[in-house]
Amino acid sequence: MSELRKTEKIQTGIPEFDLILRGGLPFERLHLLEGAPGTGKTTIALQFLLKGREDGKRGLYVSLSETETELRASAASHGWSLDNIGIFELVPLEAQLDRQQSVLYPSEVELGETMRLITDRIEADNPDLVVIDSLSELRLLAHDQLRYRRQILALKQFLQGRRCTTLVLDDLTSQSGAKELHSLMHSVISLEQIERTYGAARRRLRIAKMRGTEYQSGWHDFAITPGNVLIFPSLIAEEHKTDFEPATVSSGLAGLDELMGGGLTRGTTTMLVGPSGAGKSSLALQYVMAAVNRGDHAAYFSFDETFETLKLRSAALGIDIEDAVRQGQMGWERANPSRLSPGEFVWQVRRQVEDQKARVVVIDSLNSYLSTMPEEKALTLQMHELLTYLNNQGVVTILILAQQGIIADVQNPVDLSFMSDAVVLLRFFEAGGEVRKAISVVKKRTGVHELAIREFRLFPDGMQVGPKLLDFHGVLTGVPTYGGSPDPLLRDRDETG
């Protein structure tokens, strides 16, 4: 067995955090949890001690920055009780020390005395788990950086001889010396809070260092809710491969299946592209309800509209999504771009696929997803990783992309070839004094498809894909020319494919 696998781990009380840590924090080590005030250090530390109490371990919280009353109030806000967890509140030492020192600086006396009080309390309680909050307070007591470093090294050596796992917090309020401690720590976990121009702040963490054990590198989004710290591990698509049959999935609409060369293929991504109002969401719902009718679970993630508006619109087409959601056959998630982090969105998709066994996933729309955070390049790469994961799971993924403009010069905001295996284009065109809709397949990697352009119409009892527009030229420009027999468009429902 390798040395990495021999390392005993302590669970943190946050399952997804333990997943990133490949089992938990290494036993009998000194771990640094650093981040600016408000990033969630205390909350994570409390969950660490609460999990230890649950597992029968003795815990001690050494507080140099908060009173015991404040700490208990913070825990109570999450519905937690700190009973049977030791709390050591260090009062200001200037009230205890004789300030008439002639040999030593007062700061040197305070630091040494503070460290002695901490070690004495640890010896008295003999805890399995210790939290020290925070190093920034100790740093302020030190007269110089060298003395501070020596004291931390002495504390590390003291703790290592006691079979004790320690989590020390640092709020980085003093940048001088903050990074120098990294070399003394067995692991360093960094927390970060990013303020958006509008909407909720984005929290994320990363394992900056961890000696002698495996971990998942990179940044991971997380959120703090009452009673929980929810961490969303960054997705590595290659770790989630499954065997599946690349079968063809029908839409339940004969003309559409004919246009698609039989249907969509499992393990592929199809992008529905077109201007607003062209019928992209309605087309996606057709595939969702076809999956539900086959007995498969489908998931719909909407950034753009509420469930009520989608329900009304689908009802106008004779599609009852409310009943499918109520019976658990369809998962509905309203994604609020101003509140949702990219990592949390990916985690929601994974839960639908892994827990609910979703076989069809719709994301409506890609434009809104890309607007959730300003670093668009990173979001595009993250979406590509998500799509690779869905393909590896054998899911039929449908992305909706709204184009800018209505007719003629319509621009695509993303590179379609980068994200899709198939591209279905919907366009408006003018004919006979009316605005019509056209549908065509411009790309399909997994097989042949029709090269034709067909008319696409929505009716109160469903949608229809009409015959090929053989007598029109320039349909995709928005203003076609006609050179055939009169009235070749979709008029009679019996003429549909």
Automatic annotation (TrEMBL):
<dbReference type="InterPro" id="IPR014774">
    <property type="entry name" value="KaiC-like_dom"/>
</dbReference>
<dbReference type="InterPro" id="IPR003593">
    <property type="entry name" value="AAA+_ATPase"/>
</dbReference>
<dbReference type="InterPro" id="IPR010624">
    <property type="entry name" value="KaiC_dom"/>
</dbReference>
<dbReference type="Pfam" id="PF06745">
    <property type="entry name" value="ATPase"/>
</dbReference>
<keyword id="KW-0808">Transferase</keyword>
<protein>
    <recommendedName>
        <fullName>non-specific serine/threonine protein kinase</fullName>
        <ecNumber>2.7.11.1</ecNumber>
    </recommendedName>
</protein>
<keyword id="KW-0378">Hydrolase</keyword>
<dbReference type="InterPro" id="IPR051347">
    <property type="entry name" value="Circadian_clock_KaiC-rel"/>
</dbReference>
<feature type="domain" description="KaiC">
    <location>
        <begin position="8"/>
        <end position="245"/>
    </location>
</feature>
<dbReference type="InterPro" id="IPR030665">
    <property type="entry name" value="KaiC"/>
</dbReference>
<keyword id="KW-0597">Phosphoprotein</keyword>
<feature type="domain" description="KaiC">
    <location>
        <begin position="247"/>
        <end position="479"/>
    </location>
</feature>
<dbReference type="InterPro" id="IPR027417">
    <property type="entry name" value="P-loop_NTPase"/>
</dbReference>
<keyword id="KW-0418">Kinase</keyword>
<keyword id="KW-0677">Repeat</keyword>
